[in-house]
Amino acid sequence: MNKVELIQTVRALLADNKGLLAMDESISTCNKRFAALGIPQTEEMRRRYRELLVTTPYLNESISGAILFDETIRQQKSDGTQFIEILINAGIIPGIKVDMGAKPMVEFPGEKLTEGLDGLPARLAEYSKMGARFAKWRAVLAIGEGIPSKECIKANAQALARYAQFCQEAGLVLIVEPEVMMTGNHSLKKCAEITEEVLQTVFEQLYKQHVLLEGMLLKPNMILPGLNSKIPETVDGIAEATVSCLLKVVPKAVPGIAFLSGGQSAELASARLNAMNKQYKAELPWALTFSFGRALQEPALEIWRGEDANTVKAQRALKHRADCNRAACMGNYNSKIEQGFWQEEDGNRR
Ligand code: 5MM
Questions:
Q1: Phi first, then psi: what are they for 85, rounded to 5°?
Q2: Mean pLDDT value across residues 245-253
Q3: What's the per-residue H, E or C state across 164-180?
Q4: Can you give the pLDDT at residue 58?
Q5: What is the b/e burial string over 7-27, where b = at least 16 CB atoms within 10 angstroms of the residue's CB?
Q6: Residue 178 CB–ligand 1 contact under 6 Å
Q7: pLDDT at position 340, please?
Q8: Are 301 and 38 in contact (CB under 8 A)?
Q9: What percentage of the chain exceeds 90 in pLDDT?
Q10: Hey, what CATH class is 3-341 in?
Q11: Tell me, what's the pLDDT at 142?
């Protein structure tokens, strides 16, 4: 492990208040998103969509890194240029999702355990040779009647820590993503309790495996009430709950926290990230940024709908969301910035 290199890569990912574009949807997730919009679910359509993302002009102004999926890291633009080369030339650091998905956990109904440790060192070596500089592994924890169980939390944390060790050995920065899902009718308080327990267990396991915390990023959920919860929560309330939960369990040695969006609307994800940075940035030991998938891509995908004629407008929508979230990392996001994109009817960049 080259500690200096790992720390330099983490610093580059966090520099200038930029964040990460999660474009690592597996084939089935990407197809699900396409199906919802009537886009054909073929390898070529997924390639064309990912080409749109990686060729978005000036994306590097707000995006420092992009998380790819195995299929995507091997794909090329229509002129034959590898996507990974396009990203590197644009100054965007390429990374790769290396877990093999959350699978039903035997004997634990309703719970999932992420798989992918088998053969991981060889896959990491291949990705690193291809140019990836960081990796990501996601654990999925659902809140429900009697779940998540302690066994599920611990098994997922152990897998995350083992993945983390393999990554550092391979010289890749690691992103640790334990996601407590938004699905359900639980309260904000319940989400805070479970997230605290999950993160505490994850860091215990990372310590046990001697993981270099300075060479990692944490990718957690924000503290949110369940999607079916009827209790309204304010942007400031969510910011306060999220920051106080993270302060209890995330060590100071971790350089940055890059949130997932988890199904929030694009605007709310930006507003909540903004509130955290606006109110607490000066007192926090780590940077708070974004590693959104849906909250960055959804508006662009809805505009594109599989039509080349919509590509430029879709790219502007992606760039706009990236810029909004960079503003949120500085605590500067507001309604004027949010509306900025729609004033660009002449196609000019501001
Ligand atoms: C939670 O999902 C991650 C962040 O995306 P959102 O901001 O949309 O929540 C994301 O990186 C996720 O891990 C990938 O999209 C891969 O998910 P699948 O289900 O395709 O493995």
A1: -70, -40
A2: 98
A3: HHHHHHCCCEEEEEEEE
A4: 98
A5: eebbebbbeebbbbbbbbbee
A6: no
A7: 83
A8: no
A9: 95
A10: alpha beta
A11: 98
- Judge whether 70 and 27 are in contact, CB under 8 Å: no
pLDDT attached to residue 348: 52
pLDDT per residue as tens digits for the range 50-80: 999 999 999 999 999 999 999 999 999 999 9
Name the band, by pLDDT with cuts 50, 70 and 90, for residue 297. Answer: very high
Atom of ligand 1 nearest to the CA of 260: 7
Mean pLDDT of 107-131: 98
pLDDT surpassing 80 at residue 147: yes
The dihedral sign for the CA sequence 19, 276, 341, 308: positive
Question: Is 219 a known active-site residue?
Answer: yes
Place of tokens 């240029």: 81
Q: What is the dihedral of CA 95, 324, 28, 41, to 10 degrees?
A: -110
Cα(310) to ligand 1 centroid in Å equals 24
For ligand 1, is residue 33 a contact (CB within 6 Å)?
no
Residue pair 236/188 in contact by the 8 Å Cβ criterion: no
Is 61 an active-site residue? no
What distance in Å separates the CA atoms of residue 119 and residue 100, rounded to the nearest whole number? 11
Rounded to the nearest whole angstrom, what is the distance from the C-alpha of residue 261 to the centroid of ligand 1?
9
Enter the tokens of residue 112: 């999932």
Which whole number is the average pLDDT over 177-203? Answer: 98
Q: How far is the CA of 25 from the centre of ligand 1 (A)?
A: 6
Looking at residue 110, what is its pLDDT? 97
How buried is residue 317: exposed, middle or buried, by Cβ count under 10 Å (0-12/13-18/19+)?
Answer: buried
Mean pLDDT of all residues belonging to the chain: 96
| Domain locations along the chain | 3-341
